[in-house]
Amino acid sequence: MEKYNYGVIGLGVMGRNLLYNIADHNFSVAGFDLDEEKVKELHDGATSEMKVKGSTTLEDFVSAVEIPRKIILMVPAGKPVDAVLENITPLLSPGDIVVDAGNSYFEDTNRRIADLAAKNLHFMGMGVSGGEKGARTGPSIMPGGDLEAFRLLQPMLEAISAKVGNEACTAYMGKGSAGNYVKMVHNGIEYAIMQLISEAYDLLRRGANLNNDQLYEVFKEWNNGEMNSFLIEITRDIFQQKDTLTDAYLVDKILDKAGAKGTGKWTSEQAMEIGVSIPTIDIAVTSRIISAYKDERIQASKLYSEKEITSPENTESFIKEVGDALYLATLISYAQGLALLVKASKEYDFQIPLQDVVKIWRGGCIIRSVLLEKFYSAYTKNPDLSNILLDQDISVIVKEKIASLRKTASYAALNGIPALGTQSALGYFDAYTTESLPVNLLQAQRDYFGAHTYQRVDQEGTFHTSWQSANN
Ligand code: 6PG
């Protein structure tokens, strides 16, 4: 019986596209899906050069993959992954490798690594970013886990991933569930940038009264310069898309209620859990939540009435300011996400190479941007950088743009245009760069009512005071 180099379980669009991408690079691939229709689609869509085979029975699929088997799961995160593992593990041989390429929660991956290790099987969590198109033509791939198992997959992963120059957008992300963790934080940053872009859009359309054609031009110009990125690029294109049901632009017909699958929320929960401040990501998560309360928002907008918006005096300079503010707030969002990875790497002993993280995010993934080149240089100079805001070259960019961020955040506040992400990025920057925060007072309060103690600026040790009440 003919043997195939790789196996892919789950032949939905993502699974099928990833399978074709592997097959395009001269690897033979077996695919499995319970749905006969999907298996048929796999065969129908394959080119004559591809060596692919689809199965609807796990036995047939497993026996078609060469040993040690390298099987990639492309099924929804959560219970479906456990269901597949339960069915497939009895059919596998010691040393086989199962790679979960979905957005799985890292703790689930830890549990599965242990479960499969007890059966002499390798389990790996691997983040894949780039959507359907990326899976087919070159995603950014974030694998983690057993290093030896990774080495067996590495040539294929490097072949199928996106390239920047001739550098592959994939690298080993660290031990255990590091691959899933890095992808989770990637998505947290994705949430923040999407929120910031939406706020810039709101400021331009409601503040400067730009229409969709003008917004298209602004985003086009932004994308041609230092703000070049996937998310700016697709935003530019969105402003051109006409509705098929009416004469309007589609963006104006889309209901303002955001969905979410959970990776942003996990990022925020994790940051709280291990003590890292990522307010712009938190705000992005909570802004999606507030958007869902459409009926209440309508009620409240009537009660408090629409705020008067004063248009900026000079539209050109306002657009420039909003662009610079977006650029800097985006940079600060990456800084928060990367700081979370630094802490998580220590906390969970992932040993995440930050330099490789930013290197492989430069292409293929949703948060790819030219800005990542600057972070790559920063980590190349200092792989142990705890926060990219501490890098000298980054500080030059920040100083150049900070006035625009302040003006944009103030304009939004004064005109009642919600810009929580933009303002949180500024607030984070101000807090992070302030030597003396007012929490001396907060510590005094804690000690006053709860004897929680405090430390002093002039002596070592822990102190408590019997605070005097004026009413005594
Ligand atoms: C990617 C995306 C992908 C997915 C998000 C969407 O990197 O390719 O991040 O993983 O589009 O999970 O997340 P929400 O549905 O939560 O916005």
From TrEMBL:
<comment type="function">
    <text>Catalyzes the oxidative decarboxylation of 6-phosphogluconate to ribulose 5-phosphate and CO(2), with concomitant reduction of NADP to NADPH.</text>
</comment>
<feature type="domain" description="6-phosphogluconate dehydrogenase C-terminal">
    <location>
        <begin position="179"/>
        <end position="468"/>
    </location>
</feature>
<keyword id="KW-0560">Oxidoreductase</keyword>
<feature type="binding site">
    <location>
        <position position="446"/>
    </location>
    <ligand>
        <name>substrate</name>
    </ligand>
</feature>
<dbReference type="InterPro" id="IPR008927">
    <property type="entry name" value="6-PGluconate_DH-like_C_sf"/>
</dbReference>
<feature type="binding site" description="in other chain">
    <location>
        <position position="191"/>
    </location>
    <ligand>
        <name>substrate</name>
    </ligand>
</feature>
<dbReference type="InterPro" id="IPR006114">
    <property type="entry name" value="6PGDH_C"/>
</dbReference>
<dbReference type="Pfam" id="PF03446">
    <property type="entry name" value="NAD_binding_2"/>
</dbReference>
<keyword id="KW-0311">Gluconate utilization</keyword>
<keyword id="KW-0521">NADP</keyword>
<feature type="binding site" description="in other chain">
    <location>
        <begin position="186"/>
        <end position="187"/>
    </location>
    <ligand>
        <name>substrate</name>
    </ligand>
</feature>
<feature type="binding site" description="in other chain">
    <location>
        <position position="288"/>
    </location>
    <ligand>
        <name>substrate</name>
    </ligand>
</feature>
<feature type="binding site" description="in other chain">
    <location>
        <position position="103"/>
    </location>
    <ligand>
        <name>substrate</name>
    </ligand>
</feature>
<dbReference type="GO" id="GO:0004616">
    <property type="term" value="F:phosphogluconate dehydrogenase (decarboxylating) activity"/>
</dbReference>
<comment type="similarity">
    <text>Belongs to the 6-phosphogluconate dehydrogenase family.</text>
</comment>
<dbReference type="InterPro" id="IPR006115">
    <property type="entry name" value="6PGDH_NADP-bd"/>
</dbReference>
<feature type="active site" description="Proton acceptor">
    <location>
        <position position="183"/>
    </location>
</feature>
<dbReference type="GO" id="GO:0019521">
    <property type="term" value="P:D-gluconate metabolic process"/>
</dbReference>
<feature type="binding site" description="in other chain">
    <location>
        <position position="261"/>
    </location>
    <ligand>
        <name>substrate</name>
    </ligand>
</feature>
<dbReference type="Pfam" id="PF00393">
    <property type="entry name" value="6PGD"/>
</dbReference>
<protein>
    <recommendedName>
        <fullName>6-phosphogluconate dehydrogenase, decarboxylating</fullName>
        <ecNumber>1.1.1.44</ecNumber>
    </recommendedName>
</protein>
<dbReference type="InterPro" id="IPR036291">
    <property type="entry name" value="NAD(P)-bd_dom_sf"/>
</dbReference>
<comment type="pathway">
    <text>Carbohydrate degradation; pentose phosphate pathway; D-ribulose 5-phosphate from D-glucose 6-phosphate (oxidative stage): step 3/3.</text>
</comment>
<dbReference type="GO" id="GO:0006098">
    <property type="term" value="P:pentose-phosphate shunt"/>
</dbReference>
<feature type="active site" description="Proton donor">
    <location>
        <position position="190"/>
    </location>
</feature>
<keyword id="KW-0570">Pentose shunt</keyword>
<dbReference type="InterPro" id="IPR006183">
    <property type="entry name" value="Pgluconate_DH"/>
</dbReference>
<comment type="subunit">
    <text>Homodimer.</text>
</comment>
<feature type="binding site" description="in other chain">
    <location>
        <begin position="129"/>
        <end position="131"/>
    </location>
    <ligand>
        <name>substrate</name>
    </ligand>
</feature>
<dbReference type="InterPro" id="IPR013328">
    <property type="entry name" value="6PGD_dom2"/>
</dbReference>
<dbReference type="GO" id="GO:0050661">
    <property type="term" value="F:NADP binding"/>
</dbReference>
<feature type="binding site">
    <location>
        <position position="452"/>
    </location>
    <ligand>
        <name>substrate</name>
    </ligand>
</feature>
<dbReference type="InterPro" id="IPR006113">
    <property type="entry name" value="6PGDH_Gnd/GntZ"/>
</dbReference>
